[in-house]
Amino acid sequence: MSKYVSSNLGFPRIGREREWKKAIEAFWNGKINEGELHDRLSDIRRTHWRLQQEKGIELIPVGDFSYYDQVLDMTVMFGLVPERFEYKGGPVPLATYYAIARGNESAAASEMTKWFNTNYHYIVPELGGREPELTKNTPLEAYREAKSELGIEGKPVLLGLYTFLKLSKGTPSFSIEEWSRKLLPLYVQVLRELQEEGASWVQIDEPALVTSVSDEDLELVQEIYGAIAQEVPGLAVLLQTYFDSAERYEQIVSLPVKGIGLDFVHGKAGNLEALRQYGFPADKTLGIGLIDGRNIWRTDLPEAQVLLEAIAALIPGSSEYIIQPSCSLLHVPVSAQAENGLPSVLQESLAFAEEKLDEINALSIAAKTGDAPALFAKSKEALQRLAGDASRSRREVQEAVSTISVQPSERSSVFSSRRLKQQAKWNLPLLPTTTIGSFPQTAEVRAARQKWRKGEWSTEKYDEFVAAEIKKWIDIQEEIGLDVLVHGEFERTDMVEFFGEKLPGFAFTRGGWVQSYGTRCVKPPLIYGDVEFDRPMTVKETAFAQSLTSKPVKGMLTGPVTILNWSFVRSDISRETVAYQIALALRKEVEALEEAGITMIQVDEPALREGFPLKPKDRSAYLDWAVKAFKISTSTVRETTQIHTHMCYCEFHDMLDSIQALDADVISIETSRSHGELIRSFEENTYPLGIGLGVYDIHSPRVPSEEEMVAMISRALQVLDPELFWINPDCGLKTRGQEETVAALKNMASAAQRSRNSL
Ligand code: GLN
Ligand code: ZN
After folding, report:
1. Less packed terminus of the chain by CB within 10 Å, N or C?
2. Among 437, 453, 445, which residue's Cα sits nearest to residue 555?
3. In the prediction, which pLDDT does 417 show?
4. What is the CA(606)–ligand 1 centre distance, in A?
5. CA 105 – CA 414 distance, rounded (Å)
């Protein structure tokens, strides 16, 4: 008889009311002291343990909690504090911990980067001068706390050494093998102490095993897990993969560990295929990730049970299965209980972290007893109701999308001929200057929006306020002498929310927050129904701005792929189809702008890369449909209409072909923040369309000098055609103040003039 165990892989740390964020920020602002911070955070931690216990979870993760980020925790546990923070060894002070994450007066923060294909950002470990030492045993502390305070026999969670090393960077470079040898004894020490303390299961997270694993990587993994098995044989290690199917399945499942965790949601096809082909060792426990840890929808429990049985049937010899989410629940909001502002069909279809625990429990009860708990019928009903909702059968959209997905979406003429007509139309100078879209969202702008939202201001009054801001900034831009103007985006809080609020098919939660980085949380919109254009969204403000000036004003839209990648998306149809639906709605907006006389239109795609699949082999298919979605939005305009796009803060070098394939007349790309690295990519690949490389970083109030920008421009012009080159900042200016923005743009305009003169 097989045994089933319910488990969780990690719980969101922010708390139902974002108490975690509030406590840490209060500490940073000096409102509470360190002792109080510890008290408040341990309350949150214990509440979450208790909650998981009450929900019937048998293997409760401990050590997944953090004061900022779980990767930074491991860095600090090994004493790997970068030298600039002047740490002398021993326990790392909390002030140093936060300084690594956020910087201080004398040292810059460590780099922050996206955690695999999620919107969570971790602090990149820097391996360099310092030798590692064990400064404390973080998972052990958590294990002891749960046991002594709550009587919970927790399952310590650690980031795997292989993944930790893969995510690290060297100063200037490092050998992964050498560092593995340095860290392995310390890592083993952590595990040995856990074993001595009586821990049984330990979850070791190795998501890097789903990306690509070279022969050398595999050897390293074998070395690490071989050593662990030898040194701490009494520990039941669950090697956990997630976000996709495991690479090198056959070798990974033969590692000397007690259990292997696989993701049967995001890696379902690949993992099932591997199970069928290679089986699963009879002496090991399989952790079966059945509940989606990346999305907010209820699980179809009867269907999940069928999958569970199918998996169990594939490995008849196994005696133990762990029922668990696909990954840590860190990536979903805490509780759906407060979501009473949504249509009931939607509200009932949600499962945030707490509700997902109920689902795990229900599946495990069903597996153990053979009876289906009440939640089974409830989940089926809710999902059937959602599936039958009118929002999901917008015939016109569906038909239009199925037609468009098999047709090419191309401009009516090629760039070389469009370009001449566009030049004749606008007669812009060489090296035209422009900005990315937003101007300072000052406290005043935000306060005005608040007053309007609360009903203190009428819509009329708010519109007047926005109009006055637009006018002010059109005047400023004319005064500075920019060539292509923008209206400033004062009416928008967030570039996705603004459009989502106006498009049928989107909904917004009250408390659906997830941690993005540190204490910054985001509340992604839900895309639940067919997305459709309803009414013009940006024409009023843009046309008003254009009426104030004879210079061109760019219309400003957020692109379909960015809207998709920054939302929680329905899972009944493909992401590709949803992207095309959004793209068609945006096409109508583009056409409405054109109709209103706005014939330079920018469609921003800063998050194009965020949907990048983890496995290299899947990337070209994604890029193909992402590019297509952009072109669906932008290809029906007249040849004299100039399409712009914008991208920022990501790796561009391996997707220049796709960027070019967007066929945008002009792209503006962030370049200065990443120290001009992008320029090198153009040495080998010339870019044949209009392009503006950001000439200054917009993240600091510092006003860049004319000389700096002239230098940046001349570097760029060594590899790019001056006839196609534009001059703009790295990104939008919404986080800046007015004074510094005006000063920086003045310098930018004179830098452009000087560069023109020297052509
Ligand atoms: N148009 C947007 C702005 O200027 C673009 C923002 C972005 O790239 N994230 O704010
Ligand atoms: Zn940007």
Report:
1. N
2. 437
3. 96
4. 8
5. 52
CA-648 nearest atom, ligand 1: 8
Ligand 1 within 6 A of 731 CB?
A: yes
Query: How far apart are the C-alpha atoms of 269 and 275, rounded to whole Å?
Result: 10
88-111: per-residue pLDDT in tens?
A: 999 999 999 999 999 998 998 898
Catalytic annotation present for 48? no
- Among protein residues, the one with the nearest Cα to ligand 1's atom 1 is 437
437 ligand 1 Cβ < 6 A: yes
Of 495, 498, 516, the one to substitute when testing ligand 1's pocket (max ligand atoms within 8 A of C-beta) is 495
- Distance, CA 118 to ligand 2 centroid (Å)? 19
- pLDDT tens across 237-276, in order? 999 999 999 999 999 999 999 999 999 999 999 999 999 9
d(CA 106, CA 498): 38
Return the ligand number nearest the Cα of 731. 2
User: Of 487, 653, 675, 699, which residue is the catalytic one?
Assistant: 699
Alpha-carbon span 375 to 665, nearest angstrom: 53
Nearest residue by C-alpha to atom 4 in ligand 1: 732
Q: Which long-range contacts (CB under 8 A, 24 or more apart) does 686-689 make?
A: 686/719, 686/720, 686/721, 687/656, 687/660, 687/720, 687/724, 688/415, 688/660, 688/724, 689/415, 689/660, 689/663, 689/664, 689/665, 689/724
β-partners of residue 288 are 262, 323
pLDDT digit string, tens, across residues 486-510: 999 999 989 999 999 999 999 999 9
252: part of which helix (H) or strand (E)? helix 249-253
| Cα–Cα distance for residue pair 319/512, rounded to 1 Å | 38
Distance CA 574, CA 402 (A): 12
User: Is residue 369 within 8 Å of 338, Cβ to Cβ?
Assistant: no
Look at the chain and count its residues. Answer: 759
Kindly compute the dihedral angle of the four CA atoms of residues 289, 294, 296, 297, in this order, to the nearest 10 degrees: -50
Residue 694 CB–ligand 1 contact under 6 Å? no
Which residues are in the CB-under-5-Å shell of ion ligand 2?
606, 648, 731
CA–centroid distance, residue 690 to ligand 1 (Å): 19
323-338 as b/e, with b when 16 or more CB fall inside 10 Å? bbbbbbbbbbbbbbee
Whether ipTM tops 0.95, in short, is yes
Query: What spacing in Å lies between the alpha carbon of 646 and ligand 1's midpoint?
Result: 8
Coil vs helix vs strand at 331: helix
If DSSP codes are grouped into helix, strand and coil, which group holds residue 129? coil
- Alpha-carbon gap, residue 453 to 449, rounded angstroms: 6
User: Which tokens sit at 454?
Assistant: 């609360």
pLDDT tens for each residue of 112-126: 889 999 999 999 999
**Angle, in degrees to the nearest 10, between helices 353-369 and 34-54:** 30
Q: Which residues are annotated as a binding site?
A: 18-21, 114, 436-438, 489, 520-521, 566, 604, 610, 646, 648, 670, 731
Annotated binding site for Zn(2+): 646, 648, 670, 731
Closest alpha carbon to 77 in 164, 196, 7, 198: 164
